[in-house]
Predict the structure.
Amino acid sequence: MKKRPVLIYFLISVLIIIIDQVVKYVVHSNMTMGTRGQIKIFGDWFKLHYLTNPGMAFGMELPFENAKVILTIFRLAAMFAIGYYLYHMYRKEAPHGLLICIAMILGGAIGNLIDSIFYGVFLDNAPFDAPTPWFYGQVVDMFYIDIWEGRLPQWIPLIGGDYMALWPVFNIADASIFTGITIILIWQKAFFKEDEKKLSDVNLPKQVSED
């Protein structure tokens, strides 16, 4: 089978980045932030809900000072690491499906990195109409799968009484990263069977011949 050029996989990442950024810009330019601007797509369970997120994927945050810039620098380092890993696995002739998944993860990582580096300056979005320095921008989220939301019972330790949504708001980049990682986990035996074979060969007991 003819080997595909490595550029194909990096183009997959570029395509994800473009789609992610276009959707984010359209949402930022045309939607009102929060519940007032919410748009129902499929009943009450799938909505467009514009919000900004200072932390990691799916709205998680790091609870310490300067966490934002540290997270942005980490994303920048991860971008280069994932890009190198994609090229490395391509050189090892890894399965086509694995390379696509790594490309999806790379595209998603760069998509959110662009928000973190540039949006605080170009979109003044911290969280909205409030300019911040480079590397402090907020990530734009918009897809909301509303499985359940409400106030938690008071008897639950630490978080009792808090208002919470069961499923966080996310974006194209988050979905791309999540999908890529999930497929790798599900199909890991097929994707890494050559590595498993090499490991099993190393661990095989040596046969002692008898005269």
Q: What stands out?
A: The helical segments are 7-30, 67-91, 96-122, 172-186, 188-191, 193-203.
